[in-house]
Amino acid sequence: MKVLIIGANGQIGQHVFSKLQSSKAHHAIAMVRKEEQRTKFEEQGARTILVDLEGSIEDIARAAKEADSIVFTAGSGGHTGADKTMMIDLDGAIKSMEAAKLAGVRRFVMVSAIGVHHREKWMESAPYYSAAKHYADVWLTQSGLDYTIIRPGRLTNEGGTGKVAVAVDLDRGSIPREDVASTIVASLENPHTIGKAFDMVSGDTPIEEALRSL
């Protein structure tokens, strides 16, 4: 499977890239927005495409034309304001969905955030972030694409354990970025996850088993 990673240079994106590159079953296509980022991935032998999410849908669609599936891991980052969050986490995500349809790519895996499907759980410190994630998810569920929405808890840089807890609703918790990446790859390989949206934190269940329980 050829997988376009939108946000390949992000922390989750880099984990997804590494796991796909080391897999005999998949091939990663890295979408990045800076020339120095493209050079880094090309040096690792990856097909790399330079596209800015604030650009056109057509640009994103050209990046997706070789792909069988899309993983959206992009984000504006924790140090930007509401304006950039809306342009990347909301509008960039929606443009990516429109680009997927334009390019004929049906499979789309979205990295969202825990609890954003309930307004009462939105982040008090940055409600615009939760709103952006929420409405991007809503758009995806209505897009007609074969979607999976993964809503991880607080992200850490600890090594992955390969064990998680998943459910439509979970209490807040944390999870290593590596385990989120492993869950993305496992979701691509498991048709049962199509049409599913779920919270996820660290737990006691192996990832593939957890996904089968959805």
From TrEMBL:
What name has this protein been given in UniProt? Uncharacterized protein YbjT (DUF2867 family)
Q: Which source organism?
A: Paenibacillus lactis
Q: Which residues form the NAD(P)-binding domain?
A: 7-191
Q: Which SUPFAM superfamilies match?
A: NAD(P)-binding Rossmann-fold domains
Superkingdom of source: Bacteria
User: Which InterPro entries did the record assign?
Assistant: NAD(P)-bd_dom (IPR016040), NAD(P)-bd_dom_sf (IPR036291)
Q: Which CDD domains has this protein been placed in?
A: SDR_a5
